[in-house]
UniProtKB/TrEMBL annotation:
Pfam families with a match to the protein in the record: GST_N_3 (PF13417)
Domain of life: Bacteria
Protein name (database record): Glutathione S-transferase
Residue ranges of every copy of the GST N-terminal domain listed in the record: 1-62
Alphabetized Gene3D superfamilies for the sequence: 1.20.1050.10, Glutaredoxin
GO function terms (MF aspect): glutathione transferase activity
InterPro entries in the record: Glutathione-S-Trfase_C_sf, Glutathione_S-Trfase_N, Thioredoxin-like_sf
PROSITE patterns: GST_NTER (PS50404)
GO terms classed as biological process: glutathione metabolic process
Record organism: Limoniibacter endophyticus
Amino acid sequence: MAAKQADMDIEIVKVDANAEPALVLENNPLGKIPVLILEDGTSIFDSRAITQYLARASKNKLFPRSAEKRLEAERLEALADGLCDALLAHVYERRMRPEEKVHQPWLDKQWGKAVRALDYFNENAPALTKNPTVGIIALRAALAYTDLRFGDTKWEKGRGKLKSWRTRFDKRYPELVELLPQA
């Protein structure tokens, strides 16, 4: 989504990260996604490193020019990434362990982080600007991941402002919505 907003032409390759695909392992020793592979073969991994690269390569189309607004976008990106980290930890706890070994206190802790982040976003949803910042993009991607992995939890209940924000985002930036994770 950030690459699209930065007007960067990239090829999206979907992989199953759990299968430890060679393409990912060759380009990120941690085996994590996303990975951006440049034409010269250089790989950039971690969402924030990728967005920083895209911002520089696009003459800063992803961050506001003012220091205060840039910090706001960076904080929003960090919290959205943290939401995804907590949700991913929750997913992996269930996916990687047999049911009898799943540690419920760990799941509860991760879900608590997610709830606090979602509550924060509900009360502090960012304004939708003409050009969405990396923080706005990260938040929408995090909500798509929440829907994908936790849609059955009814996480939207009591978060009408955030639900409305998501709807407004989708109407305002349809070209970005088509890039959201799908089931």
